[in-house]
Amino acid sequence: MIHSVSMQLHRATTSVLLALIASFTTLCNAADVEFTLRAYVDSVAIKPGALTEVWRYGGTLVTGNSDTVANLASSSIGPIIRVQQGDTLVVHFQNDLPEATNVHWHGLDIPAAQDGYATDLVAAGASRDITFTVLNPAGTYWFHPHPDMTTAHQVMKGLAGMIIVEDAAERALDLPSGALEIPMVLQDRSFTAKNQLIYAPSMTEMMIGWVGNTMMINGYIDTSFDVPTRVHRLRLLNGCNSRSFKLAWNDATPMMVIGNDGGLLSAPRSGGYLMLGPGERADVWADFSTLAVGSTRTLLSQAFHPGQSQGAIPNGAALTVATFSATSAQTETRTLPTSLVAIEQYLLKDAANPTTPRAWPIGFSNNEFTLNGGVFVDHGVAANEIVPCDTLEYIEITNIATTLRMAHPFHLHGRSLQVIERTNLSGNATAYANVVAGFNDSGWKDTFLIWPGERVRFLVRWSAFAGDYVYHCHLLEHEEMGMMRTVRIEPCPLLGDLNNDGAVNDADLALLLGGWGTAAGDVNADGSTDASDLSMLLGNWGA
Ligand SMILES: [Cu+2]
Known about the structure:
The protein has helices at 2-28, 151-156, 168-171, 203-208, 429-433, 476-480, 506-514, 531-539, and strands spanning 33-44, 52-63, 69-70, 77-84, 88-96, 104-106, 127-133, 139-144, 160-166, 181-189, 214-217, 224-228, 231-238, 245-249, 255-260, 263-271, 274-276, 281-287, 296-301, 319-328, 358-359, 362-365, 368-371, 386-387, 392-398, 408-412, 417-424, 447-450, 454-461, 467-473, 484-489. The chain is mainly beta. Helix 1 (2-28) crosses helix 8 and helix 7 (506-514) runs antiparallel to helix 8. The radius of gyration is 25 Å and the shape is globular. It is 13% helix and 36% strand. It folds into 4 domains: 2-28 and 497-538, no CATH class; 33-171, Immunoglobulin-like; 178-328, Cupredoxins -  blue copper proteins (Immunoglobulin-like); 348-489, Immunoglobulin-like (Sandwich), CATH 2.60.40. The strands form 7 sheets. Strands 11-10-13-18-15-16 form a 6-stranded mixed β-sheet, with no helix packed on it. The structure holds copper (II) ion (CU).
């Protein structure tokens, strides 16, 4: 008996030491990537003649690979940040704008306090360190300001950058990289005769969405690209305030999509066209190997009807997005992979509420668009906006209000979701049939278009990070008017708090060691108290 106890204590002591070493190593790990991110006013040469005043981010790398931070010359867009899944980032954010702002990391699963909640602001002249670990898989994410009531004009002035995540599964596919990988931030803008950005939305433009008359990519008005006759990877981001695109090639080449908002798809998806609403991303396999040198292929946005539209080039008007000219002959050796990455497919039967979706309808009342029956209230949540942590749930968004019916890009912060159903309940059948094949709902989404009359249902596993995140319409004029609500993720049970006193400390450690090898002191509920339980307890030590 004495021997047995001493053996248990010996094993426990060894495990304690190993776990302590692991915890200590984690604590001592410096940031994998560290950079300063400054928001400031600049003047850049966008058009011939006078410089254009913009608001922009500038990045300066402190720690990390030399390709981590790429600023774009003569542009308001950027920087393009390139990181690895698992990297811990430390961002020294400096606000040199004349007003308060913040940074939202669109699509990334990060703690609420780092996510840029709409009232969590950095005052003019102030700075803040933002830190998080990249949990999301390889994909195209982005960052932009998110202050309540001022997001639309801050983004319009130029503040938007891309954060590209890479991982081993993506590297194994040997997708086009380097010069064959083209980040493309799609935006529309309007300029005065003196080359200054125009943005003074009327009430109609606030209601229906502001659109510009000039197509821009990465902050440049030249949307043409010279390419070798190779396969390219286009990382498309719709960074418009309110314009959606119905993307198609001019020569009927299929739109070959390999990635979505939250990473690569399980397999390439071929279609005639692709809908891309504000905030959405798409990775496109663009095969220019069949182009003759001297010829071009044009990326178009085809005509569609979003319900409401206004402006010189209304949302839904046909337009040219980009032109690719084959300027040099090269031999292509890559072929399109038949499968891409493994994606955990959520199943409705596994949801905590498989027959009773949590419903957050889009509505319209008092001349305002609403979500879940209301508009934004600082940290205000309705009972059905408090959700359990780390739990798979079934959610339903409807867009069936009858006043001012129009398409909205729905965006959920903090967690990627999987769309499992779209149904046109009451929308115009012809208008719907003209877009529905372009909704790429496969893979991980965080933003999706919901058409007038439509119902979209999705599954989401709420983050393990507790706290308040917003969900909102990514038509930025709508967001600004309050079409934004808060979802509160409840704290997960505190693993290791064996005596349920709200803290993990020496009293819990004593209970765990006392129950070593038995079910008493079992933190992970696997029936036995062992090193994995000890590791969890120590991981929450002091919490
Ligand atoms: Cu909207």
